[in-house]
Amino acid sequence: MGNGRVKAGMRKVSIGADHGGFGLKSVLIRRLKKEGYYGVDRGTFSRQPCDYPVFAARVAKDVSSGMVGQGILLCKSGGGMAIAANKFPGVRAVVCQTAASARHAREHNDANILVLGASGLSSERAVAILREWLKTPFAGGRHARRIRQISRIEHDTMKKRK
C-alpha cells in the first residue's frame, strides 16, 4: 500500500507502530485495503527496537493537519502511543481492547485515532476491533457538545502555553 497511488473512492488512514506492534501492522494494512481504505504506512519498518513517540507523532500529525481523517497506532500496550498522539491539536486517540470499546470511542468520543496494544492481541480480534471502529459513525447529539468542550479545553491550554 505504500506505492503512493490511491484508487478513486479510497479513504486514507495513517498507520504506525513501534517494534511491539510491527507484526500486527501489516495485518491491519491488508484489512484496510479490503475495507476500501488506503493505509499510509508511517513505520516502523522492522522489528528492531525503536521509540514509539516518533511513530505516534507521524500519525498524529497526519490526522491533526487534516491530511487523513483517521489514524491507527500500535505498540505493546497502546498507552504510550495514545499519550503521545493526544498532544496534537484535534487528535482524539483512544486505546480500544474490544469491538465494543471501539464502537463507544467512535460513537461518543468521535475518536480519530484507534490505538491498539498488540501484546496478547490476536490478529482476528484486532481485525474485529478495526472493523467496528471503521464502520461506526459519531453519534453527535449530546456527545457533540462534549467534543466541543474538549476542543475548548485544548484551545485554552494552547493559548496559555504561548
Describe this protein's structure:
The chain is 48% helix and 16% strand. The chain is an alpha/beta fold. It has one domain (11-161): Ribose 5-phosphate Isomerase B, Chain: A, CATH 3.40.1400.10. It has a 5-stranded parallel beta sheet with strand order 2-1-3-5-4, with helices on both faces. It is globular and about 40 Å long.
Question: How would the blueprint of this fold be written?
Answer:
Blueprint: E1 11-17, H1 22-34, E2 37-41, H2 52-65, E3 70-75, H3 79-85, E4 93-95, H4 99-109, E5 113-117, H5 123-135, H6 142-161
Parallel strand pairs: 1-2, 1-3, 3-5, 4-5
Number of discrete helical segments? 6
CATH topology: Ribose 5-phosphate Isomerase B, Chain: A
**Oligomer category:** single chain
- Please tally the β strands and state the result: 5
Gyration radius (Cα, Å) is 15 Å
Portion of residues in helices?
40-55%
Shape, principal axes of CA atoms: globular
* CATH class group: Alpha Beta
Main pleated-sheet profile: 5 strands, parallel
Residue-averaged pLDDT, rounded?
93
CATH superfamily: Sugar-phosphate isomerase, RpiB/LacA/LacB
Name the poorly predicted regions.
none
**Structural domains: how many:** 1
State the separation between the terminal residues, measured CA to CA.
Answer: 39 Å
Q: What fraction of the residues are assigned to beta strands by DSSP?
A: 15-25%
CATH architecture: 3-Layer(aba) Sandwich
